[in-house]
Write a structure and sequence with these properties.
Blueprint (H helix, E strand, L loop, with lengths): L34 H15 L45 H15 L14 H22 L4 H25 L4
Length: 178
Amino acid sequence: MDDKDPPLRRFTLKPKEVVPTESPSRPGDGTAISVDLIHRENRIAEEKSAGGRWGRAPVPPAPDVAPGGAAPFKPKEITPMDPPSQPGDESAISVHEMLRQNRVAADESTPELIALPPRRRSRRHRDFAVVLFAATVSIVVATVVFRHEPGMIALTWIGRGFATSILGWVLYGVMVRY
């Protein structure tokens, strides 16, 4: 049987073609979006819908706004409910007095500072030195006992190096507080 590889098909994305649907507006041609244009379009739409097609009463046209004249949005008028307070009035709101009361309340609500006992000194260095001293004494004893076997002497020294590195890693790397 002669199996041939199927031909490779390479897929690519279709080139993107952008076709503008509208031409950009130019200043003064009447198609630029503006508040006056929106009001004019709304007035035309209201006049068309007032023709009785939907059976509604005609809506009065919106007042014309002169171009560059009055702003389409007026500031909101505020009428005060209470008369302004006099300088010596006790019922007057004082920001400084409120801030002072807030500071006093915050000072009273904070917990007291309690002195923590001093941290005990770490015994890490002492313990590391004691274990290394014990390992060195055991190696000296093993060297005296196995003085005719160099393989055992090398094995004890390698074991001491391994034990030292593991102990150092545990005491100084793993145990943060010791």
